[in-house]
Amino acid sequence: MEEKILKIINNVRENNQLAPLLKLDESDDLRNDIGLNSFDLAELTVCIEDEFDIDIFENGLVNTVGEIYKKLAE
Amino acid sequence: MNILLTGASRGVGLEICKVLLEKGNTVYAISRSHTSELAELEITYKGKLFFKSIDLANTEGVYQTVFKEFVTNSIPLHGFVNNAAHAYDDIITNLNLSKLEEMYRTNVFSPLILVKYAIRNMIFNKTKGSIVHISSISAHTGYKGLAMYASSKGALEAFSKNTAREWGALGIRSNVVVPGFMETAMSATLSEDQKNRIYNRTSMKEATDVLSVAKTVAFLLSGDASSITGQNVHVDNGTI
User: Fold this and answer.
1) Of B40, B2, B24, B1, the residue nearest B14 (C-alpha)
2) Chain A touched by B169 (CB under 8 Å)
């Protein structure tokens, strides 16, 4: 699951010409550390939903990579 | 282009469906009932018209029935036409809450949910999609008995303008077509006298042409309208 999230995040980063990340830390902030803007976060949500059938933003904001893992593990 | 269209079985929705198919689009049509007119189109345009019976009064079911069972992410959506509407005519002092809620579910709540997932489909597929809402002249010119209905259309117009601002950066457009009174089932409850009084308030003194409305919708969906967003386009015989 974590590999798939890394792949999705790198795909979204590619839109902004950001180099792919080699790994994610649970504490990484999606905006400040990973460099995603609100459109990128929308794309991230849509791609995660397509892969896992879970809408991570449905019940409030998600700020970190660890919070995504937690939502998907619920 | 792949277009999702609600309220496709009759009236202006059926006309929009025809025009879109004539232009070579693939139409994913939704309505409560399946009509013989729609069945004929399915034969003529085999493989280009897909129908699913869905009642938009069931807002909770919209995501599952429309986007999980019908238009999934594997179908890149280029356009969404929000045409289905429930007419609720009465004077304000007779306003009934459950009728009002039912109308708002069909006319406002479900369309907003449909826009949410239509935009998500467009983001997933990276399509610069076009959204078109069908409003009503009653949101701009007052008519006795249409206050509740008109309020639901006013809500859509405000939502469309803000959709345009929010998603324009991704190339996603949102516009509204504002038809005048047409000769459809929606206005069938009006008497001839009422209709004539309504038509006499227009510059052209007659019912709005349904085909003109449908072709305007098709234009706004097309690339020819690529710089048009956040607009209300009145197709109303000059109700000014």
Assistant:
1) B40
2) yes
- Quote the number of domains for chain A: 1
Domains, chain B, in order of start with CATH, read: 2-181+211-233 (3.40.50.720)
| Average pLDDT over every residue of B162-186 | 94
Q: Is the pLDDT of residue B191 over 90?
A: no
Nearest CA in chain A to B67: A50
Neighbours of B93 (CB within 10 A): 5
pLDDT reading at B185 higher than 90: no
Residue from A11, A50, A57 whose CB has the most chain B CBs within 10 Å, to mutate: A50
CA distance A43 to chain B (A): 6
What integer pLDDT is reported at residue B196 of this predicted model?
87
The range of the structural domain enclosing residue A68 comes to 2-73
Give the strands of the sheet with B173-179, arranged side by side. Answer: B49-53, B26-31, B2-6, B79-82, B130-134, B173-179, B232-235
Q: Smallest Cα–Cα separation from B77: which of B6, B132, B128, B30?
A: B128
DSSP type of residue A57: T
Q: Cα(B59)–Cα(A20) distance, rounded to whole angstroms?
A: 40
Pairing outcome for strands B130-134 and B173-179: parallel
